[in-house]
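Input (structure):
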């Protein structure tokens, strides 16, 4: 896991995602340790965090350790990716994405 990806908890979510997204978009990955597709896209998220450094913040939140936030945002399957912009959800994708699809998702929601 790269240092470019920030790990947050329920208690940090408002500050690190909602408030931070008023300055630049934040991509949130809802994941769990036991989730195969979550592990599959982790290297891509690292790559995107580096590629979009200064333009996008990439954040991961473990749903097993932090259940309030995923419940609040209606996360029903993982991995779920949400882009927050100006404190609101701008876009959502569920499931592992190929690199090109992930880039397109990011670009279309920035």
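Output (sequence):
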């Amino acid at each position: 896991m790269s240092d470019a990806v920030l790990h947050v908890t329920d208690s940090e979510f408002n500050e690190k995602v909602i408030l931070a997204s008023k300055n630049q978009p934040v991509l949130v990955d809802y994941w769990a340790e036991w989730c195969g597709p979550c592990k599959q896209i982790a290297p891509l998220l690292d790559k995107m965090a580096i590629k979009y450094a200064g333009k996008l913040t990439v954040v991961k939140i473990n749903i097993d350790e932090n259940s309030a936030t995923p419940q609040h945002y209606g996360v029903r399957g993982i991995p779920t990716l949400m882009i927050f912009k100006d404190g609101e959800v701008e876009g959502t994708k569920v499931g592992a994405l190929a690199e090109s699809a992930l880039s397109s998702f990011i670009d279309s929601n920035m």
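Notes: The mean pLDDT is 95. The first strand starts at residue 5 and ends at 7.
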